[in-house]
Amino acid sequence: MARRETSVAGPGSRALVVDVVRSAVSISRVELAERTGLTQPSISNIVRDLIADGVIHETGSADSIRGKPRKLLAITAANRFGIGFQLGPETVTCVAIDLTGGVVGREVVPFDGGDLADRLAERFDDFIADLDLPRDRIEGLAVVAPTARPGDEDTGPAWAAVRAALTERLGVPVLVENDAAAAALGEFWSRRVSREQAFGSVYLSSGIGAGLVFGGALHRGASFDAGELGHVSIAYDGLPCPCGNRGCVERYASMAATVDAARAAGLPVEQKTVFSAYDAIAHAAVSGDPDAFAVIDRAAGYLSVAVTSMVNLLDLGRVVLTGPGMAVAGSIYARRLRAALAAGAHARHRHEIVVELSAQPRDAAGIGAAALVVQASIAPGHTAADVL
Ligand SMILES: [Zn+2]
Fold this sequence. Notes:
- The chain is built from 13 helices and 13 strands.
- The protein has 388 residues and is α/β, with parallel strands linked by helices.
- Helix 1 packs across helix 3, helix 8 packs across helix 9 and helix 8 packs antiparallel against helix 10.
- It is globular.
- Keywords: Kinase, Transferase.
């Protein structure tokens, strides 16, 4: 694909170079110029700045056809860290990653009551002390929750106020993000997905969300509401949804809907939280209980209808299934989705549509939160507007 070369290397060019080095693992300056479409002088300037900033380093050499060995460039992993907090109903999952997306620390602790900003600030101090991470190497904190969105002033906890209070108290940049969107960026970053790939993730938790990464940047939509996969309707005259639509896939395939379906099918369902009741059904399904399998498989079938529409609408090349709901029975969902895409993905004859399971589905949003911090730090200007 031909790219337009800009005469001045802006933040978008720096983000582009970081992203190509990250996904390539190691790469020469010549290859970088070929892959990015930037001129050799631009590449030289950007690489010099990135080495000076400690973001990338030279590592070994590759043989050149014309004799002179070419130095290879790679991301400097252990230099700096991003911290992500994933808020659950009763716990907070705390994750630290290095610049390559590798997890260097993880803790899950009970979390309830009190002033949210105070509690998060204390947790931050304890977490980096537990890991013995030097504070001056921390690039920031991102907090993710189902209700959180960047710029949200008036829903759920007042996220803008929480963010402002944390920024002042901690002295590092603080971001707030929706859990499904963060999980998508985390999967994109840690899997070293190339920015040329149209990438999506499906996040099954209390609701159903999706995250979309185009050109290496999260796609957010006009009001940070992109990715509401749960409210894609799969039936014109289906079940009414609190959102106002009918037939939303969340009414058929959310964890709560699956627990209800299991109960209706006569399966023993304990009256605990939706999460624990769902996990018990998922465990039974993968352990050979045919009734439990049928319930999960049906939910997977409903979800696959909505995800196939998403793939067709956006011409995605890769989809990752993630979130707590995929932790136990993800293989059942993946099998259903692969079958649905093999039969109904419009672009299936033109390119492969890869379906993968997250390696860490329960922690994906926390890892993604930390990846948001890393991306904002080493590749600033990495917004859709800069890239496209
Ligand atoms: Zn709905």
